[in-house]
Amino acid sequence: MPLHAAADRLIATYQRPVLFAWSPEDQLFPIAHAERYAAALANACVVRIDDAYSFTPEDQPGALAAAIATFVAGTRTR
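Above: the chain sequence. Below: its structure as tokens.
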């Protein structure tokens, strides 16, 4: 399938940092998905945002902003 082939190429070649800010409580998008995506990429991490569910920016905006700030600060030093 062309979509799968394109995804495989992207995963194999993408080297930039990736942040998955994810809620462990999210039932629609389980955190196992984020963990699987992060494991497939060369430079990815998962940050758990508790008590956020599917709408992390609305449910936990401060925690999400802090996770992004920490991630960005860490990528500048690499």
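The longest helix spans residues 61-76.
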